[in-house]
Amino acid sequence: MFFVRSFLAIAFAYVLATPFTFAADPIIVVSLVPGEGQLRDKFLAARKRWDAHFGDETDVVLLIDGQVGTEESMIATMRRGRAQLSMLSTPGTSAAIPELSLLMAPFLFDSFEEADFVLDNYVTAMVEDLFSEKGLHFIQWIDSGWFNVFARVPVRVPGDMKNMRMRAAGGPAARVFLQEAGADVAQLPFADMVPGLQSGLLNGGATNSPMYRTVALYELAPFITMTRHGINPGAIFANKKWFEGLPKESQDYVMLGVSPTVIMRADVRQEGVEAVEFSKSQGATIIDLTNNERQQWIDATANSHRILVEEIGGRAGEMYGLIQAGKSAFAASTAASGETDASR
Fold first, then answer.
1. Domains of the chain: which residue ranges?
2. Residue 70, Cβ neighbours under 10 Å: how many?
3. CA distance 274 to 282
4. How would you list the strands of the sheet with 285-287, edge to edge?
């Protein structure tokens, strides 16, 4: 018995004297970010800042190459608390918050400046409530630039793509735009777009300029029509339970986002300009529209807003009213200041 007691005493003393190594608590960040470009650079920089803020007890893990699957899978992962931070496109977030699809409605905004003004001053408060209802905490907007039409043959007006098989991104807005313009719409996952173009199943689709460059669509669909018909104001957000469990200092730090919104928007939009120039250097034909041609696209899709509000349901009508109020306020402010639209 004496031997046992002596052994336990020695063992206990050894345990007290031996430093423990605890596994760091992870902060898992999920997204689907292009392999290069402004968004990836900003995420990598943000990880360093988050690591420094949270210290050795926390390990920030970036799963931003689709390791979690589709964006629909990512937002489900966020809501279950299996990831703490995310950046998703509008189609991705709308899988849980359908009203966000309305923000991609064709020709909803006339300029980047107008869109930023409306989102920041009229829509964000409602969006914060919608995120909260789904167990999520909204942090900031992102932007991927204008959506344009790309195709294997020249397209100038909606009639040029009548019955053409065109790929629509996720969510109803992309589908309704192409549908109302007269295309034969195929709503396919992103991974199926390139094989569809290669096989001839697809004749084109719609996407933003950085993605057109990243996927080298200029090789498969070398005509890009600058319709500038919609934006994709994705979001960066946190799991609500995780966020609310943070100390106030850490909450404030997380709310700084990946990068200041004004900088992120400007850099990504500049990247879009550079993507168009690069694609042109690789053989793409850039089709700029006349005022008359652009008006034909607007007229062809004139019913899309009503269709989307009815199809999305929920609080989409309320959001649409906020958007229209914001557009009116923006028009009044620019008229008073004498500013002109320089976003195009």
1. 23-144+232-269, 147-231+275-335
2. 17
3. 12
4. 184-187, 165-168, 204-208, 147-151, 223-230, 285-287
* pLDDT per residue as tens digits for the range 61-108: 999 988 888 899 999 999 999 999 999 999 889 999 999 999 999 999
Quote the longest CA-to-CA distance of the chain. 99
Does residue 322 sit in helix, strand or coil? Answer: helix
Task: Name the residue type at position 86.
Answer: S
Nearest of 279, 296, 246 to residue 58 by alpha carbon:
246
Amino acid in the structure at residue 144: S
CA–CA distance, 223 with 204 (Å, rounded to integer) = 9
- How far apart are alpha carbons 209 and 235 in whole angstroms? 19
CATH number of 23-144+232-269: 3.40.190.170
Is-above-0.90 flag for pTM? no
Q: Give the mean model confidence (pLDDT) for residues 312-326.
A: 98
Tell me the pLDDT tens digit for each residue of 21-71.
Answer: 334 589 999 998 877 788 889 889 999 999 999 998 889 999 998 888 889
Architecture in CATH of 147-231+275-335 = 3-Layer(aba) Sandwich (3.40)
Parallel, antiparallel, or unpaired: how do β-strands 165-168 and 184-187 relate? parallel
| Residue 223 to residue 308: CA distance in whole angstroms | 28
3-state secondary structure of 25: strand
